[in-house]
Amino acid sequence: MLNSNAGKHAQLIKSKAERFGFQSCGISKADFLEEDAPNLENWLKNNFHGEMKYMENHFDKRLDPRLLVEGSKSVISLSYNYFPEEKISALENYKISKYAYAEDYHEVVKEILREMVSELQEEIGEFGFRVFVDSAPVMERSWARKSGIGWVGKNANLITKQNGSFYFLAEIICDLELTPDHATTDHCGTCRKCIDACPTDAIVSDKIIDGSRCISYATIELKNEIPDHFKGRMEDWMFGCDICQDVCPWNRFSAPNRQAKFAPNESLKSFKKEEWKEITQEIFSEIFRKSPVKRTKFAGLKRNIEFLERSSDSGL
Fold first, then answer.
1. Binding site residues, as ranges?
2. Could you tell me if residue 127 is inside a domain?
3. Which residues are annotated as a binding site for cob(II)alamin?
4. How far apart are CA 294 and CA 285, in angstroms?
């Protein structure tokens, strides 16, 4: 039996989320993710996480937010649009994932979340919480799916009818008792565009990704040399990859974001392949000071560019 304020507080949170610029907001009861447990276990057993050994840590916490945030009763899932107003030209250029065009989303969205929670506490009263933006062992897509924000597509991205999939996910795990929402239905049908378009065959089956074959993994997560099976298949991606999202029919509904901090970095618009090949640590630090690209570090980006260059030179 929910308390008398559960529905009122849930509506307040959703209206506040909209005012703070979030596309969607849904609520789930903080509980054990029973149906996700065997899927996560099998994914790890198949070594689909490659060298992302951190995915093996905190197995129980990934599946139960009450172990992550003591006393938690609700998971508030939110989405924040990052689809750019203009696409950086790929003409004589290496490609970078759209989410990395601008400032680091971890900091931008987390700051917005903190301001939003501060206002909520002024109106509701003090409550225990933690905010997450692609951080800590949180099964973001699982919670977003449970809360009705969207469904998990065949490319394992969360998709919504209204907005496609070019958005960040974030969570507020809190000790407020809130009226939960319900999951939506799957609308991928028989479409295979993302599966067929993936040049490295990383989508091994519906909703299951072999991360170790993904271009994003190879250019961001992988710390060692890029394996030979990526040769001739990278399609000039030097950081991340948007192929499976770009071909998704639902992304025809993507509209440009209105967050000034997500405006494309001017430096990225003017760079060409020859300039990327000559990039120095100093220029890297200057361009990517506030960017998610700093995660791969200068050495990682140089490795990616050199791998693409070698693949091109060999005629692959």
1. 62, 134, 155, 158, 169, 188, 191, 194, 198, 214, 216, 223, 241-242, 244, 248
2. yes
3. 62, 134, 155, 158, 169, 216, 241-242
4. 8
- CA 30 vs. chain centroid, Å, equals 21
Check if 134 is active-site. Answer: yes
Tell whether 137 is covered by a domain. yes
User: What per-residue confidence (pLDDT) applies to 281?
Assistant: 97
Domain containing 10 equals 6-174
Whether residue 273 lies inside any domain: the answer is: no
- Classify residue 138: in a domain, yes or no: yes
pLDDT at 2: 77
CA dist 88 → 91, 102, 200, 235, 294 (Å): 9, 11, 23, 15, 19
Output the known binding site for tRNA.
223
Tell me, yes or no, if the pTM score tops 0.85.
Answer: yes
Strand segments, DSSP code E, in 237-286 are 237-239
pLDDT tens profile 118-129? 999 999 999 999
* 31, 64, 134, 236: the active-site residue: 134
* Nearest residue to 237 via CA among 192, 187, 281, 198: 198
The pLDDT assigned to 311 comes to 83
* Mean pLDDT over each residue of the chain, to the nearest integer: 95
Measured CA to CA, the distance from residue 125 to residue 150 in angstroms comes to 30
Domain count, the chain: 1
